[in-house]
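[SOLVED] Predicted holo structure with guanosine-5'-triphosphate

Edit: marking solved, answer below. Original request kept for reference. I posted the sequence and ligand SMILES and asked for the 3D complex as structure tokens.
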Amino acid sequence: MCNTCGCNPNHSHAHAHDHPAPRKKITIEQDILSKNNSLAKTNRALFKKHQIFALNLVSSPGSGKTALLEKTLRELSAKTRFAVIEGDQQTDNDAQRIAKTGVPVHQINTGAGCHLDAHGIAHALDHFDLKNLDVLFIENVGNLVCPATFDLGEHHKVAVLSVTEGEDKPLKYPTMFENSDVMLLNKIDLLPYLDFDVKKCKEFAKRVNPKIKIFEISVKTGAGMSTWYEWLAQEAREI
Ligand SMILES: Nc1nc2c(ncn2[C@@H]2O[C@H](COP(=O)(O)OP(=O)(O)OP(=O)(O)O)[C@@H](O)[C@H]2O)c(=O)[nH]1
Ligand SMILES: [Mg+2]
């Protein structure tokens, strides 16, 4: 059970004890989410004030979020001023990887928490010079469930799904794909070795979110990365 966020823990496992009254639980969930939404609104206003384009990268662990950022920052930093907030339960491994690109980065460790929240982002923003920032990437904790329901004030959630995870993930974890505007289908260099059905995966993602934009990419080989860069530049211009 997720006891740190507002996600609905749909228990199917056996318990030796009674559950609390469902009505009380729903109220608590609403309180947590409404507090978060109000802080997200404040973050959004700050992004607007400083004309910062903010993206929230969400995925299961290991889909390639940090690898995507490392490559994107190395290839686009000459023309765009970036900063990165890294979210993980423990370690600053990802922040260290990002720091090597020369881009300002701040690591948040959530401990037992399974997602970033707007409050944590507000504090992390104190570590950056917002007046000299064009694009903020927030790499969320690897988790296909909880980060989906927490607004951080970002312009878009970008879901990264790698082909090693199976094409059914958009159907099994629909909230994540409903709430994302983009799906990056990563690691397509591995397709020759897998039974992953790209067409079906895209159909599934569109079924839960007909408006979702899908880019097939390989961070490793660079295939498809230009489509992602074009989308990024276009959207950043339009805020
Ligand atoms: N073959 C292949 N491997 C990739 C690709 N992109 C990332 N990887 C590998 O996938 C592994 C996980 O990548 P990360 O960037 O650490 O993934 P992540 O989503 O940031 O992981 P967490 O932060 O733990 O959630 C690493 O070994 C990467 O080298 C790709 O396009 N192709
Ligand atoms: Mg990472």
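OP edit: Helices lie at 22-49, 65-76, 93-99, 118-124, 169-172, 174-178, 198-208, 225-237. Thanks to everyone who chimed in.
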